[in-house]
Every structure is written in C-alpha cells, then in structure tokens.
What does this fold into?
Amino acid sequence: MKVFQINSVCGIGSTGRIVCDIKQTLEANDDKCQIAYGRGFYNDPDCLKIESDLVFKAHVFFSRITDRQGFYSTSATKRLVRSIEHFEPDIIHLHNIHGYYLDIRVLFEFLKNYGKPVVWTLHDCWAFTGHCAYFDYADCNKWKTGCGQCPQKSAYPASFLLDDSKKSFQEKKRLFTSVPNMNIVTPSDWLNNLVKESFLGEIPVTTINNGIDLSVFRPVETKFKEKNNLRGKKLVLGIANVWEKRKGLDDFIALSKILSDDAKIVLVGLSEKQISSLPSNIMGITRTANINELVELYSAADVFVNPTKEDNFPTVNIEAIACGTPVVTYNTGGSGEMLNEKCGIVVPTGDINALAKAIENINLKSEDCVSYAINFEKNKQYNIYMELYKNILNSRC
It folds into this structure.
C-alpha cells in the first residue's frame, strides 16, 4: 500500500507529529508513504516541501488583503500534483490544507479526476466555513447558511481589508464535495457532529482520536522546581503554540489574582512581549520545540490547565496525563473527551471561579493518569488508520 500525505507542517506541532507517526506506522507494516508539507523544514527524503519561503510569504501577503487564503500558490500546487502522480499512491491523505501553501482549486480539481480514494483528517473547522478555523469564540453559526460579513475577518487566516467569506464558502462547498471517493476523519466526536451538520454531511465521517508516543511522553525525574525556586509550590502549567484570547491567556491572568499563594502558574509558548507584561506570579517561557523539555515540564507540574475557548482534540491534554499530570479544562470542543474522572476535571467554559476551585482541590493520582493515557498510544490509534485504508481499498475491489 502506498499513501501520500499532505499537511501544512511536518515533524513539528501536533499535526506535524501525527503525519510522521502515520508514516512510521505504514513503514512498520512494509507499506510506503510520502509526505508533502508547506512550511518549515524536515530532513527526510520522503518528505517534500511544497513551496519556497518566498512564495509562502507572498501567499500570506495577498491573503491579508483579499481574504483568499487557499487560492494562491498555484504553481507550487501544480508541482505537488506532479509529485503525487509520480509516486502513484493508492490513497491520498489530506490533513491541514490551509496555512498559506496550497491552491485548493488546483488540488481538488486534480483529486476529482484522479480517481484515487481520499482520506481527509480535519484538525479544525476550516473546511466547512468561509473563513475561520473555529467559530465558538465568536458564537457564529453563519457556516450553516453560507457565511458573509465575517465577524472574525481579522482572526486567522486574517484579512485586514476585504471580506471574501461568502464566495470562499461557495467555492469550498463546490470543490470539497466534488471528490467521488472521499472519507473524512475527525479526532473528536465534537467535530464529527459538526461535520454532519455542514455541507460535508453526506461524506462518510469517522472519529479516530489523536495518538502520542508513550515512550516519550511519560513521567520523568525533573529538577525544574528546584532550579526555579518553586519547591513547595503547586505548579500550574499551561502550554500553547500561540497564546491568544481563545487559548485562555486572559483566564490565566485572572487566575493569578485569585489562586492561593502556594500556586505558581508557568506558561510555555509566550512571546517575549507577552512575557514582559505578565504579573509577577506567572512565569513565562518562550516556545520550545524540544520534546524532552516539554516532558520535564509536564512531569514537574502538579496540574495542567487548558482554558481554551476553541479546540478540537488537544494533544497537550493527552501529553499531560501521559506524564502523570491531571488536567483541568473547559467544556470546549473536544478538550474534555480524552479525560475521565480519575485524570481530569472539566468545568463550564469561561467560569474562572470553577476553574480556580478545580485547580485548588484537584487530588488525582499520577498512576491513574498514566494508566488512562494508554488508550491514546500512537500505534493503537494509527493502526485504526491502517484498517480504514484497507477497508477503503477493499471496497473498491
């Protein structure tokens, strides 16, 4: 079996690690896989960068003006198509196709006519909206009726001038429903249910949870507290790739005013500017791509807090419990789906007092967290993809 995967990144971030894990699972079964990605760099001859950094920046620039993210990088997408044809895959597996690196018109016209089955893992809601990746924070339901006059025009993928959400919605609907043999995968039941309400609702959809490498994410000895004079403190950890309002940065600042003095909030993934404006009882750390550093932080924490207002199936929650750290999160999207009463607490979205109470009172066992995390072991989850691939191919025989 030969599978060609496409994603915005490779080897970094949650989706970049997922595509690499799927590739490793395929190769462990003596199957073949190539990955095409949009930005960054990953040193593997089977992983192809689709476009140059200059073309990527041009795509970003024009999208900022026209609100046409996903409708540039035409030449790069044509090269991608040639790479797919050269590889001759049995299945094409899409992941994040937004991110300023593809022309979705070129890609989907090709997929429609190529005749090979397509699996598309949705990591957010962008596929069925006219603009945004999430709409919960804005409390917007225009994705059900056709978009237009987007209340999140300045949010990712930001446009600072035009609003093209209505036209983009119509084009996405036409393109994304045109592929005759496509299967959608969602990491959460929450997103699965949204897909069924969208214009993608006639396409088969399956939930396959994200997996993580339990040989990496596990409890380890760490001296983080000692090195940072936090001995005797309750370490409250938060991690995000980009800290913004929807990720709950303001909620952490509010928490810092009401948590007891024995609590210390540590946030990872902040910019230098954000760190400089933090209150004194929050410790800020810039983004790290070093997995071992993240594992040490998870292991050092007494509780991992994820006050996200919009999310699908955040792997940070799984990584935390795999390292023996219980999670407190809002009842947002699929953020609570990977938790049970022995490894986490889910509170109403936006309820700072409930969040603080859960943090102060949480008393869950590390070993129970680790035991439950076994359900999300990457080989277990990504072998479900292998079964999906086989079922799709067998149904065509």
